[in-house]
């Protein structure tokens, strides 16, 4: 008892083959889309690899790139097979490998679905990488003369301006580290000596933030220095001031940005998976309708198309017995080899 | 003597018509591209209309949008004609429209060339608008409580950050303007009172710039205040300091951005005119079969270039003379 049988005559078969061929070309475009999404994500990760402590995992974009390439190849091949299915002479050469190709398609669809799930899950390790990376980024902000870290200041400034954020969790993170290099501090000045002497590590800490934290929408010119000292500025109360510097923390901003990218990519890959399942089902119908021709010589005869040759349960038991037979076959071969030794 | 004749048989004609049809559809895509470029340019002008004195001319983008739509329509019609060329029944119906369509195509090409010329010329007007607009923007920077100007500060800050520029010509433009609102100045303070009294107009001027002038690529934290006073900052010489704030003026930066947009639009359209259009008009005049199956000749112009030109002049003269003759005939009738 075949599963989901549909009757086909010549006209219907031709229409089915044409539709599935058309869908295969859409699927090739979808494969290119997945490839380009993987490339885009890889580039985005690279752009800010300095802030992610240089150990961000490129696993997900690499998987997306590989899946995109494989999807393109599989779909182009499937499209060619569909195109040839209308011509019996050409179809004969594809017939033997079609069953294995369909199994391959099913496995590929499962992998694609797993990739989509991965997109949603990989957000969590990214969160930790970002938190660690940003903390270090801020520590190295002043080291513009140390090779390997000289662009940290620029990267961090550009990031704070682009993502409209300040510090790791909020702007007070800048109060806890020395972000002005010793090269620009006058050690003979009393004020500098006092500040350095006032804390254990000997760091020049101040209640100021870099200029990249400033919010351009603030009605007054940006107050970056002496932020917690109300008397230093006219008509200023740091408890109620909302618009002066960005309130959001950069780890939050970056996470929501990358999380958004990953969610979008995951949703798109799910849609591509659904398309792939549809074309696989279509190809299965094309294959089955052409192999159950009532009269193999006459192309105009009727045929049946089905999703599975037997019911789901029977197909499953068939697969299990086949796998057991393969395992037993290996054992029998070993057993047969032994008697050879005793005969002579 | 026809101009540039080529012999055609049926197969060659079919191939020509197919090639021409493809070219027409490419032209439709180019028309869509010109349309979208026009919309993009219009949006870009609108985005920064605040720094452009609010009198910027939207002539070029409007013209581009119009030309793009016309190109789509004309080329789609041409493509349909090509498609019908191969069917003799449909072609006899189209034959009468062929000559006016080609004249229209020629006229449209001239319009495209005009648009290209405008793209290059209108850059001057944009330069002047920008100069005036930026000067006013800097003046109104502090008026964040005046309706109509409250977003000037934000627009100017974002422009300076995005285009990596400071001031109109350079950062010293900020020294001549009071860019801190009186709301945030403590008028009881002696320093403030001194500064305000030290100039004729009573403005609080300082040798400082807003934070948006800061260059993130500078190795040291940004120095915004007391820029010309070396003693206030450790190890600082304002004459040799290059990376602290942006050195470029915003007028130059924004103008070079818009002029590059306009130049590339102009180059793109002229490439379209030169390449595709000439080819299609050439091929059009050649696709003119009387008998479907037998051989035929295709030509660029029916007579030589000189003869065609004299023909056109003679036609224009007869048109003019025709009017005169009619008037002459009318007057005797009416008079008598």
From TrEMBL, chain A:
Signal peptide positions (record): none
GO biological process, one term: visual perception
Pfam families cross-referenced by the UniProt entry: Tetraspanin (PF00335)
Entry's localization field: Membrane
Main localization (coarse): membrane
Organism superkingdom: Eukaryota
TM segment ranges: 20-41, 62-81, 101-121
PROSITE patterns referenced in this protein's UniProt entry, alphabetically: RDS_ROM1
Membrane topology recorded in Swiss-Prot or TrEMBL: Multi-pass membrane protein
Statement: the UniProt record of this protein carries the keyword Cell wall biogenesis/degradation: no
Cellular-component GO terms for this entry: plasma membrane
Keyword set, alphabetical order: Cell adhesion, Disulfide bond, Glycoprotein, Membrane, Transmembrane, Transmembrane helix
PANTHER family: PERIPHERIN-2, TETRASPANIN
Similarity section: Belongs to the PRPH2/ROM1 family.
Protein's recorded name: Peripherin-2
High-level lineage: Eukaryota, Metazoa, Chordata, Craniata, Vertebrata
Automatic annotation (TrEMBL), chain B:
Protein name per the record: Peripherin-2
Intracellular or extracellular location(s): Membrane
Family membership: Belongs to the PRPH2/ROM1 family.
CC terms in the record's Gene Ontology section: plasma membrane
Matching CDD domains: peripherin_like_LEL
Its membrane topology: Multi-pass membrane protein
This protein's UniProt keywords: Cell adhesion, Disulfide bond, Glycoprotein, Membrane, Transmembrane, Transmembrane helix
InterPro entries associated with the record: Peripherin/rom-1, Peripherin/rom-1_CS, Peripherin_LEL, Tetraspanin/Peripherin, Tetraspanin_EC2_sf
Biological processes annotated in GO: cell adhesion; visual perception
